[in-house]
Amino acid sequence: MTTGAYRVARAAGCLKATFAVAVGMNLAEALWDPAGAGWRAARAAASVLFTVALVAYLVLRVLRWRRARSEHP
Question: Which of 7, 8, 50, 56 is most buried as measured by Cβ atoms within 10 A of its Cβ?
Fold first, then answer.
């Protein structure tokens, strides 16, 4: 596995993990009504982490795609 492929795979793993956390938090909120500053802070942190993981994954995929395209004319 090349370094680029490894980075994309690692970013995909982080994206999957943050997605699982977000889904778990949504499920917890659907079944139970958590409230308070701690819950709001956890939701904000999960949202930021998911957004960062998504952007990192997309950027790495685009960079890898562009590199592959420029290497094979």
Answer: 8
Contact 25, 44 (CB under 8 A): no
For residue 54, CA distances in Å to 11, 13, 28, 29, 47 come to 8, 11, 22, 23, 11
Per-residue pLDDT tens digits for 30-40: 998 888 899 99
What is the C-alpha end-to-end distance of the chain, expressed in Å? 22
Sign of the alpha-carbon dihedral angle for 40, 28, 16, 19: negative
Answer positive or negative: Cα dihedral of 36, 38, 43, 44: positive
